[in-house]
């Protein structure tokens, strides 16, 4: 595994790592799934984490055995409907949605001259970062619209390192989704999973929640 001393950059997921917006994504998808007559389960909810908007809709339709029930145009309509609902839920969101310890962790990373980038599949990430007051820390962002493949493909995390001018083995990727951990591992970066270690069992290091995400804890985990 990687030495702590060789780490130069951190590539962050957004939803469920920096802010608790993943609950809003879930809420909005659940509403649509129920409208389409697809049973909502915890497993489905977990599988959608980190997955792009259209891929998420396709997973929902598949779970309900409806993968060929709609035209591309109808699917675009439903994806837009989910996004409208999601943006409505975000309307009043502010810095209080930042997850515990994240502000301190980011401050600490800046103090120690680590480089930071964002590898979120969300096309709403610039808006979310603005509302959280964190945009200034994430000037380097992978634009998900430019990707050939979404998570779990390594492309997004590989790009997250590239835009920092760093090699993958100098970077740490932080994720709350199984698809994201697979993407980080595929890009040969050190993976940190935030959440249930049984679900994120492929992560190199696991913290049950963001309050445990500190440089000291990462250093300890690598010893
Ligand atoms: C993140 C979230 C997913 C979401 C995806 C696309 O990865 O974890 O739940 O579906 O972004 O988000 P968007 O805001 O573009 O619909
Ligand atoms: Mg996430």
Automatic annotation (TrEMBL):
One of its GO terms (biological process) is carbohydrate metabolic process. The record marks 120, 151 as: Important for catalytic activity and assists the phosphoryl transfer reaction to Asp8 by balancing charge and orienting the reacting groups. Substrate binds at residues 13-15, 29, 48-53, 56, 82, 120-124, 151. Binds 2 magnesium ions per subunit. Its cofactor is Mg(2+). It comes from the Bacteria. GO terms for molecular function: beta-phosphoglucomutase activity; magnesium ion binding; sugar-phosphatase activity. Mg(2+) binds at residues 13, 15, 175-176. The active site is at 13 (nucleophile), 15 (proton donor/acceptor). InterPro entries: B-phosphoglucomutase_hydrolase (IPR010976), Beta-PGM (IPR010972), HAD-like_sf (IPR036412), HAD-like_SPP (IPR051806), HAD-SF_hydro_IA (IPR006439), HAD_sf (IPR023214), PGP-like_dom2 (IPR023198). Keywords: Magnesium, Metal-binding. The keyword Cytoplasm does not apply. SUPFAM superfamilies: HAD-like. Belongs to the HAD-like hydrolase superfamily. CbbY/CbbZ/Gph/YieH family. NCBIfam families: bPGM, HAD-SF-IA-v3, PGMB-YQAB-SF. This is Beta-phosphoglucomutase. It comes from Companilactobacillus allii. The lineage of its organism: Bacteria, Bacillati, Bacillota, Bacilli, Lactobacillales.
């Amino acid at each position: 595994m990687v030495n702590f001393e060789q780490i130069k950059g951190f590539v962050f997921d957004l939803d469920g790592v920096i802010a608790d917006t993943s609950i809003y994504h879930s809420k909005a998808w659940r509403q649509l799934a129920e409208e389409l007559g697809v049973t909502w389960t915890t497993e489905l909810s977990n599988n959608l984490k980190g997955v792009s908007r259209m891929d998420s809709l396709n997973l929902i339709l598949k779970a309900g055995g409806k993968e060929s029930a709609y035209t591309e145009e109808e699917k675009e309509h439903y994806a837009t409907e989910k996004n409208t609902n999601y943006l409505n839920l975000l309307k009043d969101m502010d810095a209080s949605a930042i997850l515990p310890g994240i502000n301190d962790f980011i401050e600490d990373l800046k103090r120690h001259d680590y480089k930071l980038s964002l590898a979120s599949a969300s096309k709403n990430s610039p808006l979310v970062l603005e509302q959280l007051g964190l945009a200034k820390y994430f000037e380097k962002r992978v634009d998900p619209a430019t990707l050939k493949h979404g998570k779990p493909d390594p492309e997004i995390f590989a790009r997250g390192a590239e835009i920092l001018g760093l090699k993958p083995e100098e970077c740490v990727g932080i994720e709350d989704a199984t698809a994201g951990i697979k993407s980080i591992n595929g890009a040969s970066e050190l993976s940190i999973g935030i959440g249930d270690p049984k679900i994120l069992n492929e992560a190199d290091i696991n913290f049950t929640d963001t309050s445990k995400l500190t440089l000291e804890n990462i250093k300890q985990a690598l010893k």
